[in-house]
Amino acid sequence: MMSFFSPSMQFVFPPAIQEGLAKGVYEVVSSNSGVPLSMVRWAKGTANAGQFAGHAIGTIMNDSPLAPITAPVEVGMGLAQMYQVHRGFQKTYQGINQLQASLGVLQSTTAVIGVGVAVTGVLTAVNLYQTLKLREDIKQLKLTVTGGFIDLKAALKDQGDSIIKRIDEVAEDIKYNSHRLSLITAYGKFITALDWFKRAMNIEGVNARNEQINGVLTMLYNALADYSNPNLLENTCAAGQLRRMECAWAIEQAIIAAYQAQNQLTAVNEHLEQLQNKIHQELINIINQCSSEEELDFLFPEIARIKIHDCTALKSWQDHTSWFKSLSADEREQLAMLEPETSEAVKVQLPQNDLAVKPLEMQIYEALKQKSHYSALRNQLKFIVKPELRRDYESYILNQAVATGLNGLAPKNWEEVPDLTVANLYHYFQVQA
């Protein structure tokens, strides 16, 4: 099926390895199902044929860095360094810091969204573009997270008086303050658990380390229960629901990272599968709750980013886990002996996300709006999240086209038909019915 949102993820290797791949000296390692992974082997015909030769130093999606909203990309790629305790589980550290920064931004932006019906005109202040910029500001220490929240009035001071007024109004709302207190409590547990996790990973004894991580897991599950509290979703608009669910997904990924640090790969694999299914279903539920074009303007680019970047990162993490489980003890030892190269070590300038321009998802959505309308765009968003849903719409269009004698509107090859066309045709027949 044709789609404007077809993910194309690639791993970036050091120049020497990239040159070796081009010459056939190395070959990219693939998962058991044939999916490329973040490592290379010596190719057949070489002296060290079959042995591991190096790691990727980055991941790109459609010529830009893979940049999920919540998923910690480094954790999945860091599986190969699991046994390199003396190197400090650096990939896991980086992933934990990603989750912490993302969570602070996501829950802080609820101070604009509030509780109840989405307010027209304010969601642009915390849309995908602004959220990514806020997260980068935290990374560069331009903003700090206190008690789980950043000072949005200071961060968004350039957004106009209406936004500042909205933040003040939300701050006075009793329902929102109840939500905020719950989030502060949950965030406190989360941060305490992450600090504990970092200390636990420095313990050299496997049994002692795993025992400490068990305590971390208990605290993370408690934080997850707070973030998943149904009261946080009660009478909350679709935009607010998305923000709260994103927080919960971030916690779940921290839990998965903790199981990975314990080498509980079966649990990691199962949790990743469950989380991906959960995200897909909850995104569909959120789309169904969308009640206005202004809200869709907020949801469409962000949900597209989650599907393309976050879900791709989680699937890659799962592919790495499944493959790693199948390795022999000797192969795992080979991986443990590899030096984990970094872009700094090999002096490579990896592609950077240009925050001076709108994210690709927003640009594409704005182009789609010129060719379609609210109802069709909302359906297309469902196709992006769950492509299999499109089949029901195709069947409806085919039946209606035949019944009304408009056979020319029933494509013979659906694979060549863009999602936008399917969504528009479905809406056309719905209006005619």
What do these coordinates show?
The chain has 433 residues and is mostly helical. It folds into 3 domains: 9-60, no CATH class; 67-337, no CATH class; 360-432, no CATH class. The chain is built from 17 helices and 6 strands. The strands form 2 sheets. A 3-stranded antiparallel beta sheet has the order 1-5-6, with no helix packed on it. Strands 2-3-4 form a 3-stranded antiparallel beta sheet. Strand 2 and strand 3 form a beta hairpin. Helix 3 packs antiparallel against helix 8 and helix 12 packs parallel to helix 15 (374-385). The radius of gyration is 23 Å and the shape is globular. Keywords: Coiled coil. Residues 258-285 form a coiled coil.
Would you spell out the secondary-structure blueprint of this structure?
Layout: E1 9-12, H1 15-23, E2 26-30, E3 36-42, E4 52-55, E5 58-61, E6 64-65, H2 73-77, H3 90-108, H4 110-113, H5 128-139, H6 152-155, H7 161-171, H8 174-200, H9 206-227, H10 238-261, H11 265-289, H12 293-325, H13 329-337, H14 360-369, H15 374-385, H16 390-403, H17 419-432
Antiparallel strand pairs: 1-5, 2-3, 3-4, 5-6
Helix pairs in contact: 3-5, 3-8, 3-10, 8-9, 9-10, 10-11, 11-12, 11-15, 12-14, 12-15, 15-17, 16-17
